[in-house]
Amino acid sequence: MSGGDAKKLVRSPSGLRMVPEHRAARSPFGLDEPPWVPDKECPRCMQCDTKFDFITRKHHCRRCGKCFCDKCCSKKVPLPRMCFVDPVRQCAECALVSQKETEFYDKQLKVLMNGATFFVTLGTSDKSELMVCRLSNNQRYLVLDGDSHYEIEIIQISTVQILTEGFTPGGGNTRAIGMILQYKVPGSEEVMQMKFTAGEDFSCNKKLSASWLAAMHKVSK
Question: What is the pLDDT of residues 38-65, one digit of tens each?
Fold first, then answer.
């Protein structure tokens, strides 16, 4: 592991977290831990309004920081966006969001980091270059490798438009065939554009390219 991507284990009131040693190296998909609502400010459950006492104990949701009774905050769910090592206690509403995000981390992010091959056209050029496109291991850069090399910082991407083909009257059976990406050049207001097109020959796996584009669409959301 390179020094810039080194991680450390830290303990917070919410649990153990494996975080980057340097804040600048953190993933753009990460979230900061929320401040907990002080105990003295929550005499009742913030969901069901049950009064806290010796029997009914209060618990804080690790995602939103609000205060709940055990019934309203009983789920322990993985929270990768905050780098928790183990599943942590969350309220029902936050648990649903975290469960969806866990699927994104387990599936879509892995697809993006594995990469796919596209013909890439820069700006208004009429020439395209065959390039392998992947998300960097620290999830901060979109890396493009061919005869040329580009690294686009994820936080600089302003627009992701997925290109599709095929349709039915009901609107189904479309497949992703490409993408138009717009991003800002660091240090300026200039906006650059790249067009990604899935190759038609067997050296470019169409199914893999479509999965990569679908994952990129998730990232844009």
Answer: 999 999 999 999 999 989 999 999 999 9
**Of 189, 118, 194, 184, nearest in space to 157 by CA:** 184
Classify 114-165+174-218 by CATH class.
mainly beta
- For residue 107, the 8-state DSSP code is I
Q: What is the CA radius of gyration of the chain?
A: 22
Query: Three-state SS string across 20-87, please?
Result: ECCHHHCCCCCCCCCCCCCHHHCCECCCCCCECCCCCCEEECCCCCCEEECCCCCEEECCHHHCECCC
The residue extents of the domains of the chain are 5-109, 114-165+174-218
Q: Exposed, middle or buried: residue 181 (CB in 10 Å: 0-12, 13-18, 19+)?
A: buried
Output the pTM of the full model.
0.74
Residue 139's region, left for phi above 0, alpha for psi from -120 to 50, else beta, is: left
Distance between CA 117 and CA 20 in Å, rounded? Answer: 30
pLDDT per residue over 147-192, tens digit each?
Answer: 999 999 998 999 999 888 765 555 556 778 899 999 998 888 889 9
**The CATH number, out of the four listed (1.10.700.10, 3.30.40.10, 3.40.50.12280, 3.30.200.20), of the domain defined by the range 5-109:** 3.30.40.10
- DSSP character at residue 186: T
